[in-house]
Amino acid sequence: xxxxxxxxxxxxxxxxxxxxxxxxxxxxxxxxxxxxxxxxxxxxxxxxxxxxxxxxxxxxxxxxxxxxxxxxxxxxxxxxxxxxxxxxxxxxxxxxxxxxxxxxxxxxxxxxxxxxxxxxxxxxxxxxxxxxxxxxxxxxxxxxxxxxxxxxxxxxxxxxxxxxxxxxxxxxxxxxxxxxxxxxxxxxxxxxxxxxxxxxxxxxxxxxxxxxxxxxxxxxxxxxxxxxxxxxxxxxxxxxxxxxxxxxxxxxxxxxxxxxxxxxxxxxxxxxxxxxxxxxxxxxxxxxxxxxxxxxxxxxxxxxxxxxxxxxxxxxxxxxxxxxxxxxxxxxxxxxxxxxxxxxxxxxxxxxxxxxxxxxxxxxxxxxxxxxxxxxxxxxxxxxxxxxxxxxxxxxxxxxxxxxxxxxxxxxxxxxxxxxxxxxxxxxxxxxxxxxxxxxxxxxxxxxxxxxxxxxxxxxxxxxxxxxxxxxxxxxxxxxxxxxxxxxxxxxxxxxxxxxxxxxxxxxxxxxxxxxxxxxxxxxxxxxxxxxxxxxxxxxxxxxxxxxxxxxxxxxxxxxxxxxxxxxxxxxxxxxxxxxxxxxxxxxxxxxxxxxxxxxxxxxxxxxxxxxxxxxxxxxxxxxxxxxxxxxxxxxxxxxxxxxxxxxxxxxxxxxxxxxxxxxx
Length: 665
Ligand code: ATP
Fold this sequence. Notes:
The strands form nine sheets. The protein has a seven-stranded mixed beta sheet, sandwiched between helices. A five-stranded mixed beta sheet has the order 26-25-27-28-29, with helices on both faces. A three-stranded antiparallel beta sheet has the order 5-4-12. The protein is α+β, with helices and mostly antiparallel strands and 665 residues long. Helix 15 packs antiparallel against helix 16. 34% of the residues lie in helices and 23% in strands.
């Protein structure tokens, strides 16, 4: 789960938009709409009127984060505004005020996402012999989520503001220091009403006590004590507390777990028996279908099953544009490998990494560490191949206290989003794009336990190798396998004696060639990657306008492999039928091979600019030379303009497809 807190939460704007009902936000600025959608409490039932002190408490934030926020905000504002203006990303249900945590992709965004998924699918399965695909349903048997642990443990700790009911993720409340004002209750002299609820307010140093009293009075007024006299005021200096709402100083509730799965009912009756979930990840379907795929695909361990699809999480605080959404897409691979004991039995040794970097082509004697390193490095290569430089990425090894209990190692691949937190040196620390986890044999074991169906694979080579081992080796490997199986079974709650018996049966099965495969899981998010590619592509430079005067150009420098449109085709003038006819011929020549945008409207310079903003890497212009007006040597040639350098060259129409395909494949 979350390792870093994002700064991009725009408190300076809170005063402008907080308290608006979801359908009453300013229309002029798409960014404000976006921010307000993120700030709105979950739904109108939580909407509150804006407390007057909201803006006055802004100095609660230290100056530094505010300055960092301002820079971040400016860049993100431009990016969000471009996304809307050019049709990359829209707020879902915008005409009804939007729905927090849900986003739609417009024409360019839809192409960008499709290209990302195609690139991933191509690299994961089409270009490999050892990975096959799967497309499973979003709603699955609820037992799947019991087996995976999602029903009981897929939750974040949340806290609510006692005054506004605004909900926060407990780990995202920033530590604050100041003076806490405590009250034991309040009375109303006129009506005789009384509240014995205790409450407290945190004030930053230097703030007058009246500010705390004002907040406390509002709290008690909400409890019916109208003409409030506060009782039992006392103060205490507090340091780095996360118990108070940073926006208004009000006490927060105690942290409580909040399950992130979205529920629904299958069938006509809304009963507990019919309760089901929208999947919070795509991975579990792969485990549930493991045996079927193994049987039909003629694959043998080691091999993988990959899937792309929607996932849903009722995130407490969706934020940072599409980064943390409630509906998103994942691209997940489960790569099944032999347990190290089986590798050692077959090959006499288990290869482990000799140092950092890509370990090269997979070898049969690789243990889990080699496979893990291999997939981490493969994934970095993938990102570099679609235009994210290695310097924009961070390889973060989860610390032992961050690892899931069954995971042996997890590397998070982070992208340095503009809204990422900064370290002491001011460097962006990055936010997670993908996790590459070595998950042991936990997942298949859990499904075996919950479904009662065998999840073992049969390994002919292991069966053949085992009898040839000497007795000492047999004992050592069996014992190791027994210990690890027993450890798992005890951990998931099996009684000691039962765990021992089952682990013994499983280590006996190993000697006959049967085991539950271990798994390496590279799990990435399509939407986060789309946002990273958009942030990475955004640039501004200087370019001459129609009259040669320099102006600022906004250019999306997408790698041609994932650019939504690969080439734009322009006739120089739209009122010359010969030019238009030829340009349409060129469009039709290219169209079977790539996405082409035909544009004949406006001055050619403006048409270039429009495509620069859309991130189209090439522009092809058909002019009078193409028609042979200056002689036969330029006939059937066009101008090819490259987006980033703006360089132009002349080449034959017949050479265009090959020339462009070389860069986009
Ligand atoms: P985080 O710590 O950011 O909540 P996570 O560790 O829970 O993420 P995983 O469960 O490992 O994420 O999911 C795999 C990938 O799915 C993530 O790396 C991310 O790219 C994507 N993903 C997860 N949650 C979201 C979300 N709410 N919105 C968009 N993408 C998400």
